[in-house]
């Protein structure tokens, strides 16, 4: 196809320079002569436009993506046909692709990599909500604008290529460095396929390289199907266990073990960004921008200076000159609201905290069935010592049932070695149980891994899992504190 630089499409869009090319189309920087602004034009190849099926796919892409309006998705502005050649008009992003960024920098700073992954996950969440699957998530299809924000583009991969597999009619899908196992096998492609691809993009941002290499694209694709992903922690030892767990969860080959939706992935990434920022003490670049958008549950993990805007810090320091008492109160509040309560020390030498989703905690009441303050369950794992989960209150301080409890979902599973608990009602007793599947409907379906006797305000419990991975861990309360009406858990942490 001859490059038509200088061509005026539909009497309006002047093609100024070619900036990209793919199997179906070529992308140009162009100028909208009516609104007098730069745009990007995706011009379908002439040889493809003669194929009615390909032409319909191109039109379908324009209609579908035009429905999306999200700050991290490149916006479709217009679509049309000129001299029987269809085109799509998109907002023009001045910047570089994420792939270019990785090639230039190598491994990205950890908070920056997480921030980009959050923005991409949010974009995919918006697309999936409208039943639009990207099908080709890769850093080449993520643009970094002049302000450092990530924007996903190119929702146009041909559907037949994914339905018929990699070798249909000798056609090539394109790079398979990021292809999901089910996509490589020609199985139905859903939003979970995009999640897998984003997990691989995150892996590359953290390590500076894709996980698999091969003689050709099919060989690489088959590695995604058959081989375990190289351990991201081995290639980037300084990343947290929580971040490594997110990568593992996103790139699980089995769909039942992979994140079910982009919203869940984004939520865990938000928690991890807060954890990594707390470890570093501060953040820079795009991570700073994304930190401002975190929900309250994640922001509570942040160090005080990361939660308070810089100008506000300056104002507080000025006020401090005449209000020393206020500074003392602020400092004390900051001390109390760290990433873990002062009495809980999850950074035990040789062990690491297991990352749990913000909604991983649930009450457990198999004998009563009426629940044990289910709305408070997340308070046990929110890293806030002032929030607490409590059982219901029982008259005369005695349970009228064999027990009640609180369990956490440590998906996809972990061989935890220790549990650390904090309670405001010491003296209760029970046990810790674990389960691979479920959670079980009855206590008989669980495996006992520890006993709890006269629980202290802050206590470390060794778990006898024999190296076996369990998904669910249950704190089972059988006896209330002497003279007490309920039992509480203000903090629960698993260590491995």
UniProtKB/TrEMBL annotation:
Domain Protein kinase: start-end pairs: 13-273
Give TM segment ranges.
311-331
Q: Which Pfam families match?
A: Pkinase
Q: Which enzyme type, at the first EC level?
A: transferase
Q: Does the keyword Zinc apply?
A: no
Which keywords fit this entry according to its UniProt record? ATP-binding, Kinase, Membrane, Nucleotide-binding, Serine/threonine-protein kinase, Transferase, Transmembrane, Transmembrane helix
What is the protein name given in its UniProt record? Answer: non-specific serine/threonine protein kinase
Q: Which organism is it from?
A: Capillimicrobium parvum
